[in-house]
Amino acid sequence: MQLEQLQARIKYSRLYKNEKIERLYFRFGQDSRDIKTTAWFEVVNDRLTVFVRVENIRSADLRDRLLEAEYKAEIERQFYEIINNCELERKQTPLHVRLRDDIIPIYDDSSLRHQADALRFCCSMKVSALYADTGTGKSKIAIDLAVSRYEAGEIKKVLVFLPVSTKKNFQAQIDLWCRHNALEWKLIGHESMGSSNRAVFEALNFVDSETQIIIDESHMIKTPTAKRSKRIKMVCEKTSYKLVMTGTPVTDNVHNLYMQYACLSPLIIGVRDWKKFEEKYLVMGGIFGDEIIGYKNISHLMGLLEPYTYQITKEECLNLPAKQFYTHTCRMNDIQYELYHEEKMWLLEKIKSDCFRATDIFKSFTRMQQICCGYCHYGNEREYLGTNKFSLMHNIPADEQVIFFCKYIFEVEMIIEHFGYKNCAVFTGENPQERDAELRDFVNGKTKYFVATMQSGGTGLNGLQEVCRRIVFFSNSFSYFQRKQSVGRIDRQGQRNEMFIHDFRTEANIDDKIIRNLKRKGNLADEIKKLMLDKTKLKKYVESL
User: Fold this and answer.
1) Closest Cα to residue 473, out of 487, 456, 460, 462?
2) Beta strand extents in 438-525 (DSSP E only)
3) Residues 199 and 191 sit within 8 Å (Cβ to Cβ)
4) Residue 28, SS3?
5) CA 47 – CA 530 distance, rounded (Å)
6) How many helices (H) and strands (E) would you count in the chain?
7) pLDDT per residue over 259-311, tens digit each?
8) Four-residue CA torsion sign, 292, 295, 300, 306
9) pLDDT tens digit sequence for 114-133
10) Which domains, and CATH codes, for the chain?
11) Whole-prediction pTM value?
12) What is the rounded CA–CA span in Å between residue 140 and residue 21?
């Protein structure tokens, strides 16, 4: 049942249509000199949805939101049968047809061919997933999509969810590429949606049926049980136009895709919730039966996602210079060796006792890596152990600007102390107010070394590739994803020189295991989970460290 047919069921209703918007207005609620009520039906997020607007000149913000909620609930109760019949008829049309769009892509001469092709795809669907390697210009594609929808009359506002650390960079891209001052933008951090009720209310009040939502670095909402993921999904339900985009959609395996596509539309995968997804596509096991040990029906899942997905790889669209990789090894000092050996023996005894858990393994591995990096914790106390990694600095040319990535804040402090604060631009979670200025100083050549944690500096930063071609990983994360994102800071459009990637490591086998995993594009945590299934293999693995 279309809105035209619905109109015949409601007295005094009137149908409003333009090229992109179709609404059925009808009389409901108070309508006087002080209060004006507007009610209408509209298909939003592939559902027939009720909207009510109560403008009250006696209200502080000219809106009576309590009365709006009351009217909306009453309309949904009284029109339940009509709405249900309409939905049943709509579902006879395939989902990818219902979510199809048809707007003219708007881009300029600065768009590269792969950007123009991606934009055409996104303009053909109301919802889409753009999986583009770092440095391929996905921000411009998203901004051009919003401009295209604005000029087509579909949207008036854009809400962008993104990492807090990249907000200023994305705003700079908006200022550069968005040519419509009337198009309203709001940027909200992923982290804020998990920690701030105010940010959630701002997002809910901002979004309506004429809003485009963009979720940048969408891998950050991959966890279905996380508060930020649930809240962002709730906001997404208020509009039809959504785009998720990231350079690394899958950081562990295909289960990372569930929440990203659920934000686009819960109908794409065709399961009601995460539990149903788990039953249909995941093989669960482990000691307590709550660990993912395998996958099933993958071909079917990929077929469901394919109509809404566009992928861009650097190899296909960018002619970037080559990368050279080097590994430099140093010895541990005596105290590092002693503490490392003690931790290893403690873990072996824990495994023999049969009272260990996965968290014990991960904590012990983390502690061993921290010892290799030059420090350890005793309760709330942090003890500096020293490191021989600075003896490897002779492998780094003294006449170049260099980026240092670390896993731990303590390493950042050591590097700053070694080179001198005035020579270092610092980018970590501990200096959010100053780090943009620090980045500018490095790009402008005022500082020689850019020192960052992978967590803060490995995602969303642009401009480093124009002044630097060399990265030193003073330590590594267990995850290939963070490694790939960090290398992407220089391996991107705008890089004109051959690149050099250096790994500083100790002779400890934990460092060797990490680097081997990264070369296989793996995740050390996943490898440990598999070993947990066989105590003998796990014991041999730990003995080899």
Assistant:
1) 487
2) 449-453, 470-473, 499-506
3) no
4) coil
5) 42
6) 23, 20
7) 999 999 988 988 888 888 888 888 877 666 667 777 788 888 889 999 999 99
8) positive
9) 999 999 999 999 999 999 88
10) 3-92 (no CATH), 98-274+303-317 (3.40.50.10810), 323-543 (3.40.50.300)
11) 0.78
12) 26
